[in-house]
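Hey, resending since the last one bounced:
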Amino acid sequence: MNKILRFILALTEAVVKSIRLEGDSIVVGVRPYKSRQRRCPVCGRACEAYDGRSKPRRWRALDLGTAKCYLEYAPVRVACPDHGVHVESVPWARPKSRFTRPFEDWVAWMAVHCTMSAVARACRIEWHSVGGICKRVYDDLQQATGPARFDGIRRIGIDETSYKRGHRYLMVVVDHDRGRLIWAAEGWSKDVLRRFLKEELTREQRLGVEVVTADGCRWIRTLVKRWCPNAEWVMDPFHVVSWMNDALDGVRCEEWQAAKKAARAAAPKRERPGRPSAGDETPPEAVKLAEAAKAVKGTRFALVKGKENLTESQKAKLDKLKSVGSRLFRTWELKEDLRAVFQTGDAAEAERLLDDWLHRAAYCKIAKVVEVEKKVRRRRDDILRAVSLSISNARVESINNKIKVTVKMGYGFRNTDNLIALLMLRCSDAKPQLPWNRSVPVKKAA
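The structure tokens again:
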């Protein structure tokens, strides 16, 4: 019977001493092998006992049928010469955990595929325990691989994503070749990125980085040049076009406000509210100006779309803007011409198109477009390098979308470390394994 229980509960280096029923739960009394007792939970070395045995503790194990199962053991505190006084480690559970390893592996696998509330209900634990379990499982996987998890990275993307209101950001680093999240940390600053480049990567790994993509932050470029001297800096096309989209929306607001102001000025002033009296109707000129203001306001979604994705009604709106020679239509044309730079696959053609765009944008006499032109001109070589290398931050943006979905599924996270651990389990190569996918050898009892 003891051997069957050890096999079912995946107990290694442990002895089953007793089994009993308590209400609707099964309590299994266990103890580690003599050789595994009084071990430091940090370094694993055998230590002297600090004091006597404490009260029996319980660890939640995998359910036996429909009944909850607990492992019971009274650990002692040990005095480690290097790490001080700690409760001794047990082979069936991770340090500072009240759940067994197979149970935590199962919960972490469920958390990767389900919402927190669904995992808590299926596993019959509190929802706030799920985050801590994910953190311990990921730390265990990370410790098993060590710095080698960054071996072979050649092309990386750096970006930030919001995870909480109040300008709370995470910095994420993605491997373009594998499409995987390789590192994430709370914050968006030089110190956070320096911690990754200087402390997480070895010298050989930093020298092996060939391409880095990011937005237009100068401090990112400075740090990358300092710590990854062999890396080519690439300006992300998505951010370049987003600059132009922001300028386009600003021009649209200006045109709409100007048209609305002109319509109000042309409308006659009435002495009293209500329906206009005979001879007091709005003149046709004022009606036409009001319709023009409404037409500008209705072009918002047509302007941000690509030329190839426009519907027939949206094309008609843009044709109307073209017929009146609107500044808005000229800005939209410049936005589409900037997109064309990244859509061409030839570096020489992209250079010609970009230089032509810079010349026309500089002399368009639209203030918001001229501001974008200055930013693009400063990063001209970085933009052309994105075309020649055929790379962008698209994979990084897809990871950012998964992060936002994860935050939304969990209805927010109080502990950022638990959130990062769950993101790494979902988006990196550190995938949790179901406990029954691992073969657990059963040795003879000591």
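Confidence is low (pLDDT under 50) at residues 440-446.

Sorry for the duplicate.
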